[in-house]
Amino acid sequence: MRSRLHTSIAGLRQYAHRGFGHWMQRRIPAARSVTLNQRRIFILPSRAGLFFGVLLLVILLTAINYQNNMSYALAFLLATLFVVATLHTYANLAGLTLHALAATPAFPGQQSTFSLRLERGRLQAHYGLRLAWPDSGEATVNLVTTDSAEVHLYLPVGSRGWHHPGRLLLESTYPLGLLRCWTWVDLDLRAVVYPQPLVSPELVGAQGNRADGAAAAITGSDDFYGFREYRFGDSLRQVHWKGLAKGQALQSKDYASYASHSAWLDWELFHGVPPEQRLSHLCYWALAFHRRNEDYGLRIPGLRIDPARGDVHLDRVLSALALYGHEQPVL
Amino acid sequence: MTGQELLPRNALVWIIISQFALLAPHLARLPVWVILVYLVAACWRTMVHQGRWSYPRRWTKLGLILAGFGAIVASYGNLLGLEPMVALLLTAFALKLLELVQRKDAYVLLFLGYFICVTSFLFSQDIVLVLYSLFTVVLVTTALVALHQPGENRFRPGTIRLPATMLAQAFPLMLVLFFLFPRIGPLWTVPVKSHAAKTGVSDFMKPGDISSLSQSGEMAFTVQFEGPIPAQSALYWRGLVFSVLEEGAWRSLRRSEIPAAETRPSIPDKADETPLAYSVLMTPTRQNWLYSLRYAESSQSGLLSTADFRLFTPVEIEDQFRYRARSWLAAPLDIQLSSWRRRAELALPEGENPRSVQLARDMRATSNSDAEFVDAVLGWFNRESFVYTLQPPLLGQNPMDQFLFQTRRGFCEHYAYAFVLMMRAAGVPARVIAGYQGGEVNPVNRTVIVRQFDAHAWAEVWLPGQGWVRVDPTGAVAPERIEFGLEQALVTEGSFLANSPLSLLRYRGVGWVNMLRLRYEALTYRWQSWVVGFNSEQQYQLLEDLFGSIRARNFVILFLVSGILVLVPVAWLLLGRRQQRRANATQQCYLDFCTLLARRGLSRDPGEAPASFAHRVALGNPALAGWAQQFTRDFNHLAYAHDGLAAGEYRRLLAALRAQLRQIP
C-alpha cells in the first residue's frame, strides 16, 4: 500500500517535473542568444528577505506596544523599500543578453569549459550576476564599466557523445539581497565528449608484437604498429602478404619508427570487440599517434578521415569517434 | 562558502560607519565603556580584514558576551527596563562585528541596525533626531547594497546614491501607509524607561528647588488656545498644591491622608462665564500631574480632577501627551470650606520659625480682616529690602526666620513659603501652589511655549465669601517677573540661563536668530501634533476630510492608486526606453548622419562600410568631405571603443558626435 502510494507520488512528481520542463520549454525556448525580459525572469523573496519580513513584524509590534509613531514610520518605510527593491532587483537582470559561445570537448570524467558572453542592454550597472549550471562551478559577473563580459564555466561531462548541460541558472539578489531574481536559460550549447581512451595490447588483432602502451611503441625502429593502405613506394617487405593471400586489398605493415609513414586507425582492426570498446581503443591510438607527432587517418563506418597530424586533426578524429552513432559531426 | 558570500571591503567600511552612526543618538544614555567596546570591535575587525589579527576564538567570544552582561548589570543595577535592554542590544551589535565573516552574518548585523534605529525613537521622536535616523537608515541600506557588489574592494562614497534613491522612491508610499494604517492599542506591556530622570516641578518643594529648575531652557509644554491668548499675568499654570509643611519642605496631601468625603472637588458656580478652551502638548515628565489654569475641567477620558482643583492622570507621562481642557478663570473655588480642609490648610509644625510666626500674629492683630492682613503682608514684602534672585543663599534652622530677618534674598519658593507660613500662623487658611507662570507666545503659530525656567510657586489663601484667592508674593517683590517673565526680572543680575551659554533662548534680542528659533519651535509643534502625536482620532478626521466617509473600500482604493502612482514612474525610470543600448544610440547617430546626406542626394548603399561611404561622399561633394570624414572617424572610435568607456565618458563622446551632426556645412 505504502509503496504504491510512494510510486504514485514519485510518478506525480515526475509528471510535475516533466510538466514544468514543458512549461519552461514554451516559456524560455532554447536559443543561442537569449535576452531576458519579464517572460523569462522570476522573482521571489530570498531567505534574507523572509528574515527581513520578521524584522518588519518585530518593528511593527514595537510600534504598536510603545504607541510610537516613528517606529510605525520606519516599519512602513522598510516595507515600501522592499516593494521598490523588487523593481530594482528585476532591473538587475532585465535587458541582459546571454550568448552561447563555445564548449570545449572533453574526455569522460573531465571538465568541459563552457564559454558564454553576457551583455547588458541598458546603461546601468549590473552587479553580482551569478551563473551556474546544475552541476557546474559558478561564476559571478559585474557589468559596471563594460557592456559585456565573457564567462567560463567548468562542467564535468558524462559518457561519450554530446553533453547537454541542461538549463543555465542566472540569478542575482542585488541590490538589497532581500529578493532573488533568477532565470533558467537553455542556451543550446553542448560539448563533445570523446570516448574514454582504452589501452589495447596491440593495434592489430593479429601478430603478437608487444605494444603495451604508447611509450613502448616509440622504442624500436622496427616495431610493428599497424596496417595501412599500400602506397606507391612502400617497401616490399612491408606488404601484408598474408592479407593479400586472403583476398584483402594490398596493405602495408606500418612500423613505429616510420614517422613519415601514415597509419590508418580502422574500425575493422578490432574485429569482434564491442563498438564502444573499439571506439575507446581507436581513441587511445589516435592520442598515441598524436603524441608521437605522426600522421594517422581514421576509418569508421560511414566516415573516413585522411591521414594528417596536428591538434585540429586530432579534434576531428576524436569528435568523429565521440559522435559515432549519435550524429555526424559538422566538420 | 562561495566567493560571492565574502564581504567586499567597501561593505565592511559602510557597516562600520553605520554602526557608529547608530550609536550616536544613544551616547548620552550609555556608560562610557560601551563606546570603548565599539572602538575595540571596529579596530579588531579592521585588523582581521588586513590579515594581521585573527577572529576571536569561541571562548574569547563567550567571555566577551558574559563580560558585556556583567558590565550592564553593574552599570544599571539590573537588566529590566528599557535603558539596560537597549544597552545590551547595542553591546551585542558591536560584538557581532567580531564574527562578521559571511554575507549572512552581515544580514543579522544590518537588520539589528534597523532595529537599533527604532530603539532610539523610544527615547525621543524629536524632528532633528528623526531626520538623523533617516540618514542612518540610508547608511545601513548602503551597507546592504555594498554587500551585494562583489569585487568592490575600495571604499566608494558613491555607493550611497542608489540606496538614497530607493528610499526616496519608497518614501511617498510610506506616507500613505503611515496615515492609513489603523492605530491600535498596545498588545502587551513592555519594558519602560526606568532610568530617565523625572522632569519638571516635583511633588516636594524645599527652598532652592525651583530656582535650580529655572536654570533650564527645556520645554515643559506648549499650549494652543482656541480663542485669544490671555495676558501673561493671567497665565498661572497650576500643577501641584502643597498643603503640608513637614521637616522644612512642602508636599501635597497624600491620598491616604484625605478622608473619603473630601476626595471629590466641589463644582463651582461658573454659569455666567465663557470658558477658555485650550489644548496642552506636554513633553514627558514621568510624573502624574498635568498643568492647567484655574478652574479647569477636561472631558478627555483618563483625566481625573482632585479636590484641590488640579488635573492628573493615573499613569505617569512616559511619552509626549496631549490633553484638552476648559478653564473658568473667575469661578469661585470652595466658597464653603469643610472643617477638615480648614484644619489641613492651617496646620504648622510646632515651634519652627518663631519670629516669623510672631510677626504674622502681630500684623494680623493690627488688621481688620483677613483680606487687609494679606495686603499688609504683601506691602511689608514690598517695602522691606527683599531681593528677587536666582542665587539665594542656603538656609539653615528656622529657614523663614533667617530669610525674613537676615538674608532677604530669595526666589519665588522663598516668598511663597514665607507668605503661606505667615498666613497660617495668623489663622488664615493658605497653601503653596507650584507650577509655571507665563510662557512665550510664538507669533508664528500663536502657541504659548512654557519652559522650565517659567517654573513658579505662589500662594492661595481662603477668604470668607471669596473662596480660594490667588496671591503671588513674588509680584510684590519683583512685579516684572509676572508681567514680562524671568529674563526681565533677572536683567540686572545677568543670571538668566547662565549655565547654558549656547542656548538660543539667550539670544532673543537678536532678531533673526529669534525668528529662526520661533519658526523652529512652530515646526516642532506641528511635527509633534501631526506626526509624533498622530492618533486614531486624527486619522478618522483626516479620512473623513478626504472621503467624507470611512469605508474599507476607500482604504484599498487609496492604497492601490498611490501604489500605482509611485511604482509605475519608478519602473519606467528603471526599465524604460530612456536608457538605450549604447550600441543602438551610437548607431542611431550614424543613421541620422546617413539621413542628412541622403537629403543631399548621397545615399549609403546597404552594407556599405562607413569608411567607404565617407570616401564616396568626399568624391561626390567635396564641400562635405572634411565634415563627413571627421564624423566617420569619431563614429568608428565610439562604435568600437564603447565597451571600454566609462558611462560618463561615453555620454560625453556621444553628445559631441551628435553636435557634429548639426554642424553640417
Question: Tags for this entry?
Answer:
heterodimer, A: about 325 residues, Immunoglobulin-like, 2 domains, five-stranded antiparallel beta sheet, four-stranded antiparallel beta sheet, elongated, B: alpha+beta, C8orf32 fold, 4 domains, six-stranded antiparallel beta sheet, 17 strands, transmembrane helix (chain A), DUF58 domain-containing protein (chain A), membrane (chain A), transmembrane (chain A)
Q: What is the CATH architecture descriptor of the largest domain in chain A?
A: Sandwich
Strands of chain A, count: 16
Question: Average pLDDT across residues of chain B?
Answer: 86
Encode the helix/strand succession of chain A as letters. Answer: HEEHHEEEEEEEEEHEHEEHEEH
Which spans of chain B of ≥5 residues are poorly predicted at pLDDT below 50?
A: none
**Main sheet summary of chain B:** 6 strands, antiparallel
Tell me the structural class of chain A: alpha+beta
CATH fold annotation of the largest domain in chain B = C8orf32 fold
Instruction: Classify the beta-strand content of chain B into a percent band.
Output: 5-15%
Assembly annotation:
heterodimer
Q: CATH topology of the largest domain in chain A, anyone?
A: Immunoglobulin-like
Q: List segments of chain A where confidence is low: pLDDT < 50 over at least 5 consecutive residues.
A: 205-221
State the distance separating the first and last CA atoms of chain A.
Answer: 55 Å
Molecular shape of chain A = elongated
The level of helicity of chain A is 25-40%
Keywords (chain B): Membrane, Transmembrane, Transmembrane helix
InterPro entries (chain B): Bact_TGase-like, Papain-like_cys_pep_sf, TgpA-like_C, TgpA_N, Transglutaminase-like
Domain Transglutaminase-like (chain B): 404-475
Transmembrane segments (chain B): 12-41, 62-79, 85-101, 106-123, 129-148, 160-181, 555-575
